[in-house]
Amino acid sequence: KGQSQHKGFGKLILFGEHFVVYKVPALVGAVAAYTECVVEPSSAEWSHGLIVEDNRPAIPGYKDEKADEMLEGTQLVLKHLGWDTAKKGLKITLGGDLCAVSGIGASAANCVSVARAVAAAQGRSLSEEEINAAGYEGEKGYHGEPSGIDNTAATYGGVLKFQRTDGAPLFETRKLASPALIVYASTGITASTSKVVADVKAKKEKEPKWFDGLLAEYLDIYNAAEEALKTCDWKAVGALADKNHALLQQLTVSCPELDKLVDAARGAGALGAKLAGTGRGGLMWAICADAKSQQAVADALGKIAPQVWKTEFA
Ligand code: PMV
What we know:
CATH architecture of the largest domain: 2-Layer Sandwich
Helix content: 40-55%
Structural class: alpha+beta
Strand content: 15-25%
Shape: globular
Number of helices: 9
Bound molecules: (3R)-3-hydroxy-3-methyl-5-(phosphonooxy)pentanoic acid
CATH topology of the largest domain: Ribosomal Protein S5, domain 2
CATH class of the largest domain: Alpha Beta
Oligomer: single chain
Distance between the termini: 33 Å
Radius of gyration: 19 Å
């Protein structure tokens, strides 16, 4: 029918999960996989209501667990863009190659792709900023009060510095002269971002000095990572990933399943590895020196992880 598909990218947090909540900068990279959305406005057969056909690949249980949040997020995007399905029906079909799994920003990819498709169906050409804002509204349906890092990566793609402020968040693209070769793998465990973020907050309030110490160490890692990105020094990025993972262990957001995958990636020759996102489940990533090593790491992880993917940050 000549309908065009509209995309939102998945992402991995390179450096700064959890710390980013406290308004320090983080680095995030969009993965190659994306969610795409096609919308069909109602026809003579049906005049109103919302139909969502969700054809996205996902780890077992993920879509059922998130079904209500997905509908709520979608409805918030529609509301933000002024599409009232009580007046004019809409069928939304979600697809693409992004596997919906904890930590990959599947919700943001979903909301951004819906925002793009709905705006196109309305005949509007929205700026990327407006798409990002619509995506953020949808993210609230999933997460309540997210930092905004996921929808920003889902909208703009590439590698970004992201920082929360008291007002609008700041973000900047980081251009890489050569691509970073990444393997990422799932523990198969769906983590609750709001619960883990609340736990970290409680620990921070109980032991502020301890938390400030970790935050200071994180900032050193972040600054060194910015330098390493400038020269595509992947060996340095790997060493910093290892350090950041150790910090996240101290923050108590890793878990035996993540540690096992991180250790296996290092054992198979990765330059470094860390958990990505909320932790206590979800994903980890590893960075590799070349395509051969990337394959070796993917093979090693494939033996112990339920799902493994390769991607590049470019
Ligand atoms: O699990 P993810 O990829 O949605 O990442 C959550 C990142 C946190 O820093 C833990 C929370 C946030 O809102 O930034």
